[in-house]
Amino acid sequence: MRGAYPIFLRSLAVLYGIGAILHFADIFDLRLKFSESDGIWKIWIIYLLIFDSIAAIGLWKERLWGVTAFLLISVSQLIAYTLFQDVFGPQWFLVVFHIATLSMFAILGGFKKTTIAILRCRSHLVQKVDER
Q1: What is the pLDDT of residues 44-64, one digit of tens each?
Q2: What is the pTM of this model?
């Protein structure tokens, strides 16, 4: 058995893939009226489309850049949907979703695994520079 952490990453990948599809639909006015949205909403939807897609692919492949995209999206949506409710409206489902996924990420040791991966990448890069 591979363990809970890889299964969690794959589950997140599916959810972020669904999010990317929904934002793609937004752009074509299939879900939201993107064409009538103000500039902030348009930028926000495009940002989410791009980074949800990156996160979905990277999480499925269990790559550091996928985890980084997941963390970036989670934190940015928590900030947007709690501190800027006057702009984005109440998005409590997404706030709860991101708190839950970040909590599960922490419980499964994701922050430790990510920190170790970053340090390994850093030491590998330093080694490459030293070889020159």
Answers
A1: 999 999 999 999 999 999 998
A2: 0.84
